[in-house]
């Protein structure tokens, strides 16, 4: 925690010096974002099916009227009674963005391996409105690098976060898909671990404060997080 206090003019000088670093970071971020958009894509050949509030649907149907689809892989295993607290923290942040994303031709949904009725009950409990579908019994979560029941049984054998290792049965991620002109679906991008942070505005707000995330003395990162109805 910073303890030094200075005059306003000294503070302004330090702030301006920091601004140069922030500008350089933003410029680099723009370059990385442009490179992400230029990634080659892979056609989705499998016929994935999901349980949704509208009945069974294919991956193509999850796009709705949009040509782009963001999938948040929400950690909620088939036998779990509750969703992951950290994924719930993320959901609090992307919940409510759907109309804004749709205005840019993009849909956002969450996908989990738990049965649909569990997902919908949990969504109601925590006050969310985003579409949430079940991939129970599907290879979808394994193929896109977030489920490893019995090891990495997916086609790609990439492990979690492209590490070749699968340290847990369930892990979080975001996958991005594009509907092509011929109606087929392409996978353009996936990200995991700290790559998910752009979807969490609360963390970015904390990063502006003197104390920051204040997680250094915790037994593990995000140990402080609770579901939004569990804080005292």
Order of helices and strands: HEEEEHHEHEHEEH
- Average pLDDT, to the nearest integer? 95
Based on helices, strands and strand pairing, what is the structural class?
alpha/beta
**Terminal CA distance:** 25 Å
Q: Catalogue the unreliable spans.
A: none
- Percent of residues in β-strands: 15-25%
Give a short account of the largest sheet: 6 strands, mixed
Q: Enumerate how many helices there are, as a single number.
A: 6
Total DSSP E strands = 8
Strand neighbour order, sheet with most strands: 1-8-7-4-5-6
Proportion in helices: 25-40%
* Oligomerization category of the chains in this entry: single chain
Radius of gyration: 20 Å
- Note the overall shape: globular
Features:
6-stranded mixed β-sheet; alpha/beta; 18% strand; two-stranded antiparallel sheet; 6 helices; 8 strands; 232 residues
């Amino acid at each position: 925690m910073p303890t030094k206090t200075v005059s306003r003019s000294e503070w302004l000088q330090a702030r301006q010096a920091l601004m140069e670093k922030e500008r350089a970071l933003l410029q680099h971020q723009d370059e990385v974002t442009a490179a992400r958009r230029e990634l080659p894509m892979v056609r989705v050949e499998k016929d994935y099916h999901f349980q949704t509030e509208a009945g069974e649907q294919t991956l193509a149907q999850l796009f709705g009227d949009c040509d782009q689809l963001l999938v948040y892989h929400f950690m909620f295993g088939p036998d779990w009674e509750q969703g992951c607290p950290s994924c719930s923290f993320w959901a609090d942040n992307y919940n409510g963005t759907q109309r804004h994303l749709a205005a840019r031709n993009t849909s956002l949904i969450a996908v989990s391996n738990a049965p649909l009725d569990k997902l919908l009950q949990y969504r109601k409990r925590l006050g969310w409105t985003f579409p949430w579908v079940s991939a129970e019994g599907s290879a979808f979560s394994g193929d896109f690098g977030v489920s490893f029941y019995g090891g990495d049984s997916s086609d790609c054998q990439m492990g979690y976060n492209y590490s070749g290792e699968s340290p847990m049965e369930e892990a979080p991620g975001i996958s991005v898909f594009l509907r092509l002109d011929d109606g087929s679906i392409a996978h353009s991008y996936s990200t995991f671990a700290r790559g998910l942070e752009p979807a969490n505005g609360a963390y970015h707000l904390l990063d502006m404060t003197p104390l920051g995330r204040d997680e250094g003395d915790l037994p593990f990162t995000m140990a402080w997080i609770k579901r939004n109805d569990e804080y005292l």
